[in-house]
Amino acid sequence: MLDSTESGSSLDIASGFDALPYEVVLAIIHYLPLIDQVTVQRVSRRFSQVSNDSMLWRKISLEPFRSIVDDTTLGILGRTRFASIDPEIGAGRLMDLDLSGCKITDWGVIAISERCQRLRSLNLQWLDEITDLACDALARHCKELSSLNLKWCTNVSDKGIQHLARSLRQLETLVLCCNPSLTDDALEYLAGGLTRWSLRRLRLSLCDSITADGLRNLEQMPRLTYVDVALCTSVSADSIDSLTDLGILVDHEGT
């Protein structure tokens, strides 16, 4: 049991911390690991208030917890941590989310897209259970996406890319590497949709079904500056030269 001196000292420390400006406490919590940011809200009412600040929940990586994060976990986070506590914001506060390697299916992506419509960057790498349904949900709800990583999402087909191309007018970076299901049609959709005017960086390495005919569609995209076709065995040197002549940097050796 604490004596009066120890008790007074503890109260002084607590009072001193409570006296810190809101911005200072926010900065301290910002540097804590994600799991500690969630836990610290139980310390006091003030910690709970600060730990719910939107700034802390704009950029989140769940990749370190990939072995335990599934659709159910993501749904809970979408309703609590990621969704806005301010009714005026409505579309959710999360802007940058990394789910690479998590145990997520279409239903997890659908849930997060409905609650986090302000997403700017989304990493779904290694989510080999998601399909075109996930792409459709993102296209319908996350109109502000500027970066999307679908590397190794091998169940996403040309149809899924069509959904994205029709709706994502702000998409600048798209990663489609390591998906043998994608064909030249995917590139035709990108060049014929809203993404024609926005896309700057496109990664297609190890997409074996992409050919020279598909690459020619990219010549119609005026803002495109970088294309990765490393290990795309059906792409010809002439099609690469055509893009290079337009000032597009083409990586065809995986450098």
Write up this protein.
The protein has helices at 4-18, 22-30, 34-39, 45-51, 71-79, 106-115, 132-141, 158-167, 184-192, 212-217, 237-245; strands at 59-61, 96-98, 121-123, 147-149, 173-175, 201-203, 226-228, 249-251. The protein is α/β, with parallel strands linked by helices. It folds into two domains: 1-52, no CATH class; 58-251, Ribonuclease Inhibitor (Leucine-rich repeat, LRR (right-handed beta-alpha superhelix), Alpha-Beta Horseshoe). It has an eight-stranded parallel β-sheet, covered by helices on one side. The longest helix is centred in the first third of the chain and has 15 residues, at 4-18. The model is unreliable at 1-14 and 85-90 (pLDDT under 50).
What are its keywords?
255 residues; Leucine-rich repeat, LRR (right-handed beta-alpha superhelix); alpha/beta; elongated; 8 strands; single chain; 39% helix; 8-stranded parallel sheet; 9% strand
Query: What is the straight-line distance between the termini?
Result: 64 Å
Return Rg in Å. 23 Å
Q: State the total count of DSSP E strands.
A: 8
Q: pLDDT under 50 segments (min length 5)?
A: 1-14, 85-90
CATH superfamily of the largest domain: Ribonuclease Inhibitor
Based on the coordinates given, report the CATH architecture of the largest domain.
Alpha-Beta Horseshoe
Overall shape = elongated
Q: What is this structure's SSE topology?
A:
Layout: H1 4-18, H2 22-30, H3 34-39, H4 45-51, E1 59-61, H5 71-79, E2 96-98, H6 106-115, E3 121-123, H7 132-141, E4 147-149, H8 158-167, E5 173-175, H9 184-192, E6 201-203, H10 212-217, E7 226-228, H11 237-245, E8 249-251
Parallel strand pairs: 1-2, 2-3, 3-4, 4-5, 5-6, 6-7, 7-8
